[in-house]
Amino acid sequence: MRNRSAIVSAAAALLLTGGLLATVATRTPAAGAPAAPGAPQPAAPRPAEAQPAAPPATPPTHPPSKPPGATRSAAPAAQPTAPPATPPGAPAGGPAGASPGAPAGTAPGGRPAAPPPPQNLQFLPKDIPRPQLIQTMRGFSFALGVRCEFCHVGEHDAPNGREDFAADQKPEKVTARAMLVMTKRLNEELLAKIPNRGTPPVEVTCVTCHHGQPKPQTLSGRLHAAMAAAGVDSAIAEVRHLHDNAEYGWFDLSEWGISEAAREFSTEGKNDEALALLHLNAEYNPQSTAIPAMMAEVQVARGDRAAAIEILHKLLAADPENRRAKRMLEQLEAPPKEGKQ
After folding, report:
1. How many CA atoms, within 13 angstroms, populate the side-chain half-sphere of residue 178?
2. Burial of 158: CB neighbours in 10 Å, binned 0-12, 13-18, 19+
């Protein structure tokens, strides 16, 4: 009997000890259980982590990459929650209108918000599709060799530091509208009366006259301006500059184009300037026979017949069948008629 009493007492002690250990286990994390890095250990559970009526043997823990409270849908309002994850491809911060604090420029679902419709369209259709409008503007830009700020109020001109495409502040924009009206009338009214325009019909556009320049100008006009500003050397330097940048297609810098500019100078009595241009043209086109013949004409206009005859003899030595040179030389070497000494 004494042995049985001892056994019963030992069993009771074991049961009591087990109950105490189970109670401690529900309140103390098991040894080695992971904890959030750097997280403080509170003395008592927070309200958001109130103990359920039947606590589990070990409390749930959150891995470091998962913010606390992400799985606690019943947390009190005082407990802050992490913002929702950004959908793939959406701008950082979430879609506009989906949650407070979302960035502007996005629509619900993370899609980019539609840009506002264009304002103050007076010549172009007000319902023009945006891609077509942008391409039309790009066409203007390339035709004139300018950027948007040439006609539109740019960020440096606007009071709020942002481009204002609707403003009519710049006179270039008003001029552009007038040019669009002009080309529309040319194509739809005046050119429409010309037969055999071809298919598709020939039309006048911005590049027809501008050729990549803000102001339409011929080669002769450009050289006249350069010469008026700084003399013939400036005009020659301008031709060299334009020739080096001929890929832009601003002017006709072919042999014929430069010769015609020289002819205009000679017609105006600027024969020295014309000769300077022709010598430069011969530098670019050393095999030409038309340039020496024109030089002889300019020399005659200057009153230097001997220089003209010398040029023509050299030309005929290189091209004996040049009829233009033969005719000019015969006229220059013919004896003067009586009474015309």
Report:
1. 6
2. middle
